[in-house]
Design brief:
Helices cover 44% and strands 17% of the residues. By secondary structure, it is of the alpha/beta class. α3 crosses α4, α5 packs parallel to α8 and α10 packs across α13.
Length: 360
């Protein structure tokens, strides 16, 4: 078992990583139950697969449809109404059992129901375990873009059980792996070297390798979040490596299963590296190492591989809707090489559009 503390003063919480953790859910979650009952929100795919592992708890399940489409006003409104019908109180802890969609949706609902109640993250996808379950970003998607409406709302506890990944489709496993690689590329070149040597073990769900990869990525994110909880400095912004490009790709594909979030991040990371090479910032050999590794694990490294046929101008139009835009400028996370990312707030979007038109 590994316990990582997200140090956020009165909002601090533990992130517990352990194989088989859900099998002792009653022990870990009972202290958060009111009158012995917990409200658990999950989706119609995760609940049948994992819900029975919450044995020993008096659970009131609330089930929503699986998929990115549930990060919507309609599903949020329905969820809030159902929580209120169950008599949720401000002192309650709502459990989010699912992937990133469930974590984001439940966290946002918890932030606004009765002006805020508590919630617990129990992520069941690799992407959610290493990224969205930690840090308190909650949101829904709207026509203007991904995660454009939301709130910072920290969980009270995060329980990560890698065993749940045994039922995760390989494509979703690979998509989650993209977020692990992203962290290594931001600031940990040694970890990237380890991933190059151990990716197959991680993706084959070898317990020791998987636990190590999750713990390193989560520990890095928790530390960055502790330094910059609400992304008011450049520190937390580094976690957006690949995301400015990637969110534009997701917008172009309609936030659908045509391109999973992790796949968009992988393509976005490669675009950030290639753009950095073009600008003379990053050694070309570093970009080639990243390209080779992402290709080896089956992640897209080109616009065509990500099913994108749009012009650079159209993709930049999507970027202009980014919530991080300030004063008409959009910050990009670029890189001087593996493990050396930085924030650049002076990128010319015409240059970006031209670059995208040239990218194969």
């Amino acid at each position: 078992m590994t316990t990582i503390r997200a140090e956020l003063g009165p909002r601090s919480y533990d992130i517990i990583i352990e194989h088989g953790l859900l099998d002792r859910a009653a022990e870990l979650l009972s202290p958060y139950a009111r009158d012995g009952r917990l409200i658990v929100v999950s989706d119609d795919q995760v609940w049948p697969a994992q819900g029975s592992r919450l044995g020993g708890l008096n659970v009131s399940p609330v089930i929503v449809p699986a998929g990115e489409g549930s990060k919507s006003w309609a599903t949020l409104a329905d969820l809030v109404d159902r929580l209120l019908a169950l008599g949720v109180e401000r002192g309650d802890h709502i459990v989010a059992l699912g992937g990133g969609v469930i974590g984001d949706l439940v966290g946002f609902a918890a932030a606004i129901v009765k002006r805020g109640c508590s919630f617990i993250q129990v992520p069941t996808s690799l992407l959610a375990q290493v990224d969205s379950s930690v840090g308190g970003k909650t949101a829904i998607n709207v026509p203007a873009g991904k995660n454009m409406v939301g709130a910072f709302h920290q969980p009270s506890l995060v329980l990560i059980d890698p065993v749940v990944l045994d039922t995760l489709p390989d494509r979703h496993m690979n998509a989650g792996y993209a977020e692990i690689v992203k962290y290594a590329l931001i600031e940990d070149a040694i970890f990237f070297d380890w991933l190059v040597s151990n990716a197959s073990s991680v993706l084959e769900r070898d317990p020791a390798a998987l636990h190590h990869a999750i713990a390193i990525a989560v520990g890095g994110k928790a530390r960055i979040v502790a330094d910059d909880e609400r992304e008011t400095k450049d520190c937390r912004a580094l976690l957006n490596l690949g995301h400015t490009f990637g969110h534009a790709l997701e917008t172009e594909t309609g936030f659908s299963d045509r391109l999973l979030h992790g796949e968009a991040v992988a393509a976005g990371v490669m675009l950030a590296f290639d753009f950095s090479v073009e600008r003379g910032l990053c050694p070309s050999q570093d970009a080639e190492r990243v390209r080779a590794h992402l290709r080896e694990v089956g992640l897209p490294v080109t616009l065509a591989a990500a099913s994108i046929r749009a012009t650079g101008e159209r993709l930049v139009e999507h970027m202009l809707l980014d919530k991080k835009r300030e004063g008409g400028r959009l910050p990009f996370i670029l890189t001087c090489g593996i493990g050396r990312s930085f924030v650049d707030k002076d990128v010319d979007l015409v240059e970006v559009a031209n670059f995208l038109d040239r990218h194969e």
